[in-house]
Amino acid sequence: MKNQRESNKRNPRHADEKASGSPKRQQRPEAEKAPKTRVARAKKLAVRPANQKVQSQVRRLQEQRSDLSGIEPVRLQKALAASGEGSRREMEEWIQNGWVTVNGKVAQLGDKVQPEDQVLVKGSVIKLKWPDRLPRIILYYKQEGEIVSRDDPQGRVSIFDRLPQAASSRWVAIGRLDINTSGLLILTTSGELANRFAHPSFEVEREYAVRVLGELGMDEMRLLTSEGVMLEDGLARVERIHSQGGEGVNKWYNVVLKEGRNREVRRIFEHFGLTVSRLVRTGFGPIGLPNRLKRGQFYELNAAEVASVMKWADLPLPDSRRRYG
């Protein structure tokens, strides 16, 4: 008892809490409370292997020697893009920078290459892929907190940690999503196909489900689909926008645009004083986010599905056997 009284003398606050039966916490006035900053984080999951049937088919095709003797020369930037090195515009920049050589000579824009030519980028040999087989396409359900980058000094979770290996090529992400945006991300081994989706000149539609704190009026939605609104990097306009209801102060909208500028959807709503609390890409061009696909999972298109996407993109198909690799 004596020890208890001495303890209370040393810590009067402790004595008050004991007497009342519950701790008394000092409440900070609302104006003094620091705003809560929400940082998206993704759990590190086990890397999911590709479908076994697809893997065995790819290995079988890799072992086959293709007859490339009948292939016509193609422009260097097109061949590099088709080999998954990047978009055609990026390849043109590489060539202009003098980073590419063909058979020991510095390449120039307009140069054409054939299967027997040796192509190097910054001294490294590039194994060109020719249109003798279909590219690979993966649909990935990106989670909030993941980044669309292979290297990150902060050690954040990368979507590339979730994907199967792309054999001799590499995966090219078609249109990036920021760390706080989730939903459909398309990846392919064809830089040319990636360019057909993402280049502004093709005006491919992107569809989003957007949850905002607040509500847009009918006049504001009509403005977005007609004149558009001026952002710091130019005029922004949407093709379609529809209210999808919601609960309380949170409202959902379906938004379709034909461009993909940095944080464009978020900035459009911020223009009207509204904050986007969740952003999900649900469609890109002819491809929608599959209902069966869960967050952090991928689905690889089969040969028939890939051929359908290639036809939509108005890109040439390989021979009628539609080899896949």
Automatic annotation (TrEMBL):
Gene Ontology MF terms: 23S rRNA pseudouridine(2605) synthase activity; RNA binding
SMART domains from the UniProt entry: S4 (SM00363)
Biased composition (Basic and acidic residues): 1-19
A cellular component annotation (GO) from this entry: cytosol
Keyword annotations from UniProtKB, A to Z: Isomerase, RNA-binding, rRNA processing
Biased composition range(s): Basic residues: 36-46
Catalytic reaction equation(s): uridine(2605) in 23S rRNA = pseudouridine(2605) in 23S rRNA
InterPro entries on file: PsdUridine_s_RsuA/RluB/E/F_cat (IPR042092), PsdUridine_synth_cat_dom_sf (IPR020103), PsdUridine_synth_RsuA/RluA (IPR006145), PsdUridine_synth_RsuA/RluB/E/F (IPR000748), PsdUridine_synth_RsuA/RluB_CS (IPR018496), RsuA_PseudoU_synthase (IPR050343), S4_RNA-bd (IPR002942), S4_RNA-bd_sf (IPR036986)
Keyword Iron: no
Protein family according to the UniProt entry: Belongs to the pseudouridine synthase RsuA family.
Protein name (database record): Pseudouridine synthase
Organism: Eikenella corrodens
